[in-house]
Amino acid sequence: MNSENNILLDIRKLRVYYVMSTGSVKAVDDVDLTIKNNEVVALVGESGCGKSTLAYSILRILPYPGEIISGEIIFNGMDLTKMDEEELRKKIRWRNISMIFQGAMNSLNPVMKIKDQLMEAIIYHEDAIEDVDAAYLKAIELIRRVGLDPDRVLNSYPHELSGGMKQRVVIAMSLLLNPRLVIADEPTTALDVTTQANIIDLLKDIQREIGISILLITHDLPVVAEIADRVYVMYAGKIVEYADIYSIFKNPQHPYTEGLINSVPSLVEGKLRKLTIMKGEPPDLINPPKGCRFHPRCPYKMDICEKEEPPPVKLKEGHVANCWLHVKR
Ligand SMILES: Nc1ncnc2c1ncn2[C@@H]1O[C@H](COP(=O)(O)OP(=O)(O)OP(=O)(O)O)[C@@H](O)[C@H]1O
Ligand SMILES: [Mg+2]
Hints:
Layout (H helix, E strand, L loop, with lengths): L6 E14 L2 E14 L3 E5 L6 H9 L6 E10 L2 E2 L5 H8 L4 E4 L13 H12 L6 H14 L4 H5 L8 H12 L6 E5 L7 H18 L2 E6 L2 H7 L2 E6 L2 E7 H6 L4 H8 L4 E2 L2 E2 L30 H5 L4 E5 L2 E4 L7
Parallel strand pairs: 3-8, 3-9, 6-7, 7-8
Antiparallel strand pairs: 1-2, 1-4, 4-5, 9-10, 10-14, 11-12, 13-14
Helix pairs in contact: 3-4, 4-6, 6-7
Bound molecules: adenosine-5'-triphosphate and magnesium ion.
């Protein structure tokens, strides 16, 4: 850990492409992102903009034909892009960085009781726990920690549990080896609104209680407002803006961030704000637009936006937007 600035994960100039005969999908293209200790960082953006790809690169579990083309992913002083499989398995995955996968609650094994799924995971991962009794105690502790009743849940099959309960089980699994960073990819999608709120509260409680960092990936801006300290906004493989939560919502500086926020219905000063839907679709990432990738959809487009990529502009400490509107020329 870099104790001076308290940074746990430092992603620098990361490029991750899906290399295909028809061309490369530039899913993550020159991305910088940092996560501090005990921090909840949200990564938001429309479907297909590269959020999951970024998450898979951190754990080095990219699906074929994904490749890290360049850049560094520094965790605790180690560059994860340079580690071999054995080191990743022994030092990183699950022990230091765990992941709640997109749709994970639906991938619990339907023919195994929760108890056996948790025990299998515990015994497989934790060298220290060799005997079954110790593993069972750990399973009970984890199930309690996520607010479930161990007697009922451990002896159930997944279909006997509600969506929210299954998602709690998945969260328990991610905490098995006391990781320092949990990556949660859309942890509340497919749940009803009340259950979503409960799951977010749970994540927040756990984060505070055990002092972990969370990278929360979501489309859902209200969820972000509930839990995140800082937000990175991703569009078509690039980070277009990042800031603390307050600045992102109160003072968004990239037209894409503004568009995302305006497409969420919300109560402003007691009135339901008019909902505006952003026009257009995210671009094809094999041949993304030249210049600023957002220019075909941008209401403020200028000539330069079609020609040159906007540089990052620091608006204040910790608030950066990549947009020509902020470049003094
Ligand atoms: N295995 C793959 N082979 C080729 N292209 C892929 C592969 N997986 C993802 N992609 C492409 O990479 C881009 C980024 O996808 P990714 O799944 O990272 O987006 P996302 O932001 O997580 O989207 P969502 O919000 O829908 O989960 C998309 O254009 C997608 O089509
Ligand atoms: Mg995804």
